[in-house]
Amino acid sequence: MANTLLKVSGLKVAYGGIKAVKGIDLEVNEGELISLIGSNGAGKTTTMKAVTGSLAFEAGDIEYMGQSIKGKGAWDLVKQGLAMVPEGRGVFTRMTITENLQMGAYIRTDKPGIAQDIEKMFNIFPRLRERKDQLAGTMSGGEQQMLAMARALMSQPKVLLLDEPSMGLSPIMVDKIF
Q1: Contacting residues for 34 by C-beta, under 8 A, at least 6 apart
Q2: What's the rounded Cα separation, in Å, for the pair 160 and 149?
Q3: Which of 50, 114, 146, 176 has the least CB density, counted as fewest CB within 10 Å?
Q4: CATH class of residue range 87-178
Q5: What is the mean pLDDT of the chain?
Q6: Residue 1's pLDDT is what?
Q7: Within 10 Å of residue 129's Cβ, how many Cβ atoms?
């Protein structure tokens, strides 16, 4: 039997009186890669925000590793291995690339492991190594997207949610990552 990491049942989310998600069910098992596909305004981002504890939901349940996340904040979920790369990147613009990567590892205490993982991110995204001392806000949109993904990976997530992951990336980088 598959090890279920994430289970969403009957999820309903509203912004005021506007129903954004009207009842979604999904399950993510260990080792799986799933896509949530829909048109603009279909509720994909809203669903991910609810799953990561960034947005309250009005009905349904979300279980992560067999436990309901209702009432848990994003901080708690990141500590448990659930991370998200938001649409629009959200990098720390006044910090360097290296500092952004260190921020991605803020829940960790293993300094040698953090240093190894920064090196690993530089191997995955060589452009970040070239600009490691550059302020993130001065990078192109595609470079910021790479940094946002690398920063999320620094938390060593068991489940990683990517919202519009290829936005701003070159076709070559999209092929390399996906």
Answers
A1: 26, 28
A2: 9
A3: 176
A4: alpha beta
A5: 93
A6: 57
A7: 15
Whole-angstrom Cα distance, residue 163 to residue 29?
19
Query: What pLDDT digit, counting tens, does each position of 124-174 carry?
Result: 999 999 999 999 999 998 899 999 999 999 999 999 999 988 777 778 877
CATH placement of domain 4-80: 3.40.50.300
Three-state helix/strand/coil letters over the chain: CCCEEEEEEEEEEEECCEEEEEEEEEEEECCCCCCCCCCCCCCHHHHHHHHCCCCCCCEEEEEECCEECCCCCHHHHHHCCEEEECCCCCCCCCCEHHHHHHHHCCCCCCHHHHHHHHHHHHHHCHHHHHCCCCEHHHCCHHHHHHHHHHHHHCCCCCEEEECCCCCCCCHHHHHHHC
Strand order in the sheet with 59-64: 18-29, 4-15, 59-64, 67-68
| Phi, psi (rounded to 5 degrees) for 30 | -55, 135
pLDDT per residue over 11-42, tens digit each?
999 998 899 999 999 999 999 999 999 988 89
**CATH 3.40.50.300 domain position(s) in the chain:** 4-80, 87-178
